[in-house]
Automatic annotation (TrEMBL):
A molecular-function term among this protein's GO annotations: oxidoreductase activity, acting on paired donors, with incorporation or reduction of molecular oxygen, NAD(P)H as one donor, and incorporation of one atom of oxygen
Protein name: NAD(P)/FAD-dependent oxidoreductase
Essential cofactor(s): FAD
Superkingdom field: Bacteria
Keywords: FAD, Flavoprotein, Monooxygenase, NADP, Oxidoreductase
Length: 534
């Protein structure tokens, strides 16, 4: 006889920044909660992406939880931009400090979640045979957690080892003396390439689209900055919460076309030397709205590439062109462009010779074959919807999420879905998510969901569901705001273009984290307008 499903108040899927904080909030309420995590350790992104060179490109003092002033005072970051091991140990500290691990089930992937209309509860099943019944189902599955592989055939035939940056093994990989091929030059590729080059006998980089890569000027954290921030952390956090990208910067007041070439160059140069993701894109009011303005910043960055790369032909291939700056996620590097000055490093431009297949011995393009001992796959993720659609989720009337989202992900505030009561997403499509300092967005989502649960408890409600009209209005708004910008112009993962067959719609909300927060607060103050409760 099948045993009865375990009854819980809430199931959380994923134990990264989102799932851990959600768990903490639910534990504080005294609710029974289980977190299922596919990985062998907590940490999410910072557990899986252990490739050499992996680090954050939001400054450590900003890329951290703000919910407990004691936590932010007691933790000491060592670098301006924290490395993957440092962020992972921070999250491990958080898990231990708030006694979170007791409710986390590791090495367990949720495969199915279905809403039972007769009981108004979610039944959640895992690949380890769990079946639990929960009132709330909270997806903290991550925007960049489902790895994407090159669409060409043959990876399974390659005779040497290969590593996807997003599935890096726990033990160190030694590239010494090897011929290595790296496919992909997004944020992961540009981070791993210099470190592979340090060890490999020979490295070939396969680039399909050159990226806009700014220098990070990373180094030991500035202790004056630490002291100043710790003395004023509340104001700093508030400024981040009200900002556009979750990072407080001085807001621009002028168009890039309003100032002289000389003044603009000076501003971009200062931005460049600041080593900050937003220093150039937020230097003028119109860089993400106006192509002509954008081109001034794009050309400034191309000049830096030409200055750094000694071989003009290689520099020309590395110069980012064909899409506006900032419309694919820009990168911050450590020695990326300089790496191409090494004799052992070669660049293959896949716009000149297309990738055909991976073979037993290497990689074949339309121009010929390249032999390798090891491959590094840095081809990114099925972003924003991939992890959610990786679970067989069915709502009211047995309608699946994949059917609901066949033309693109409609959501209410990126947090909830009509037809899927009591299910919430953290950093779902339709929220600022990947366009923000994600910890700022994550905290806002978790706190908003937590408040909604309190509201339901206080009012004796057991079911909450986004109304279809509210969902449509929000989704239309997300797309309308997106269409005012240059974002739809690039074939980015923001629009699903990196995954063949995926609906092409701009998934993150580009209206800014401050404006988004205000809208969420208004919805809550209006008694959760756009939600039906009973
Ligand atoms: P994740 O950290 O992705 O955690 C989600 C977890 O859910 C994963 O552990 C996954 O295993 C688990 N999961 C998914 N599906 C299932 C399932 N079906 N069953 C069980 N478990 C499941 N953001 C920034 O703001 N700044 C940065 O500088 C930055 N750098 C990044 C660098 C890298 C290499 C990557 C990949 C992302 C980076 N990001 C950055 C984005 C980063 O993902 C977020 O900042 C943040 O860590 C997301 O936390 P999360 O908990 O929402 O998701
Ligand atoms: O993935 P990506 P990522 N054949 O999608 C190429 C965060 N992150 O893992 O641009 C050949 O950006 C693809 O080419 P193209 C951050 O949010 C942050 O690097 O599609 N090439 C591209 O060059 C980031 O944005 C950090 O033409 C193929 C690359 O692979 C997000 O995670 C570090 C291909 C994929 O780039 C994802 O970054 C790491 C194919 N079939 C990650 N398919 C920080 O620094 C794809 N490519 C904070």
């Amino acid at each position: 006889m099948a045993s009865a499903a375990e009854e819980l108040d809430a199931v959380v899927v994923g134990a990264g920044f989102s799932g851990l904080y959600m768990l903490h909030k639910l534990q504080e309420k005294g609710l029974s909660v289980k977190v299922f995590e596919a990985g062998a350790e907590i940490g999410g992104t910072w557990y899986w992406n252990k490739y050499p060179g992996a680090r954050c490109d939001v400054e450590s003092m900003d890329y951290s939880y703000s919910f407990d002033p004691e936590l932010e005072q007691e933790w000491d970051w060592t670098e301006k931009y924290p490395s993957q091991p440092e962020i992972l140990s921070y999250l491990q500290h958080v898990a231990d400090r708030y006694d979170l691990r007791k409710d986390v089930v590791l090495r367990t992937r949720v495969t199915q979640a279905s809403f039972d209309e007769s009981t108004s509860r979610w039944t959640v099943r895992t690949d380890q045979g769990h079946e639990v019944s929960a009132k709330y189902c909270i997806m903290a599955t991550g925007c960049l957690s489902k790895p994407k592989f090159p669409e060409v055939p043959g990876l399974d035939t390659f005779s040497g080892p290969w590593y996807h940056t997003g599935l890096w093994p726990d033990s160190a990989v030694d590239f010494s003396g090897q011929r290595v091929g790296v496919i992909g030059t997004g944020s992961s590729g540009i981070q791993v390439i210099p470190f592979v080059a340090d060890q490999a006998a020979d490295l070939t980089v396969f680039q399909r689209t050159p990226n806009y890569v700014l220098s990070s000027f990373n180094g030991p954290i500035d202790q004056d900055r630490v002291a100043a921030t710790k003395a004023n952390y509340r104001q700093a956090r508030e400024a981040a919460r009200q900002s556009i990208f979750g990072i407080a910067v001085d807001m621009p007041t002028k168009s890039a076309l309003e100032v002289s070439d000389e003044e603009r160059r000076e501003v971009y140069q200062k931005g460049w030397e600041r080593g900050h993701l937003n220093a150039i894109i937020q230097a003028y009011t119109d860089l993400i709205f106006n192509e002509e303005s954008n081109e001034t910043a794009a050309e400034f960055i191309r000049e830096q590439v030409r200055a750094k790369v000694t071989d003009p032909a290689t520099a020309a291939k590395l110069e980012p062109r064909g899409y506006p700056y900032g419309t694919k996620r820009p990168c911050l590097d450590t020695r990326y462009y300089e790496t191409f000055n090494r004799e052992s490093v070669h660049l293959v431009d896949l716009r000149e010779e297309a990738l055909i297949e991976i073979t037993e011995t290497g990689v074949r393009t339309t121009a010929g074959e390249y032999a390798f001992d090891t491959l590094v796959i840095a081809t990114g993720f099925d972003a924003m919807t991939g992890a959610l659609l990786g679970i067989d989720i069915t709502g009211k009337g047995g309608v699946s999420l994949s059917k609901k989202w066949q033309d693109g992900p409609d959501t209410y505030l990126g947090l909830a879905l009509s037809g899927f009561p009591n299910l919430f997403m953290i950093t779902g499509p339709g929220s600022p998510s990947v366009l923000s300092n994600m910890v700022v967005s994550i905290e806002q989502h978790v706190e908003w969901i937590s408040d909604l649960i309190d509201h339901m408890t206080a009012n004796g409600h057991s079911v909450v569901e986004a109304e279809a009209t509210a969902e449509k209005e929000w989704t239309d708004h997300v797309r309308a705001v997106g269409d005012m910008t240059l974002f739809p112009k690039a074939d980015s993962y923001y629009v699903g273009a990196n995954v063949p067959g995926k609906a092409r719609v701009l998934m993150p909300y580009v209206g800014g984290v401050g404006g988004y927060r205000q809208r969420c607060d208004e919805v809550a103050s209006a008694g959760y307008a756009g939600f039906a409760m009973r």
